[in-house]
Amino acid sequence: MDRFEAGMLAWSRAGHDTGMLYVILKTDEEYVYLTDGRLKPIEKPKKKKKKHVQVMRVVPQELADMSEKEIKNEDIRRVIRRFVNVESGCN
Predict the structure, then answer these.
(1) Element (H, E) at 87
(2) Are 37 and 80 spatial neighbours (Cβ–Cβ below 8 Å)?
(3) With contact defined as beta carbons under 8 Å apart, do 9 and 25 qualify?
(4) Residue 22: band (very low, low, confident or very high) from pLDDT cuts 50, 70, 90
(5) For 23, phi and psi rounded to 5 degrees?
(6) Is the full-model pTM beyond 0.85?
(7) How far apart are CA 3 and CA 51, in angstroms?
(8) Domains along the sequence of the chain with CATH
(9) What is the mean predicted confidence (pLDDT) over 41-47?
């Protein structure tokens, strides 16, 4: 398994968006393309160097069950919101 995989959650570790949670849309040799479904929608993902993100090695089940073309910005926002709520202890 490649270290970076589409659908995984990733925290930004550098830049003005440090601490933001994203979903990886796709990867190439040096970069990952990230979306949060709001400021960085699927149609215009954020390009970030791999060394500047920390990957959560989980693909949320909601995203794993969908094909790439079925995923919408609302789905990305929902996944991120649920993960942040679980991490902070709010259900």
Answers:
(1) helix 73-88
(2) yes
(3) no
(4) very high
(5) -110, 135
(6) yes
(7) 11
(8) 9-88 (2.30.30)
(9) 97
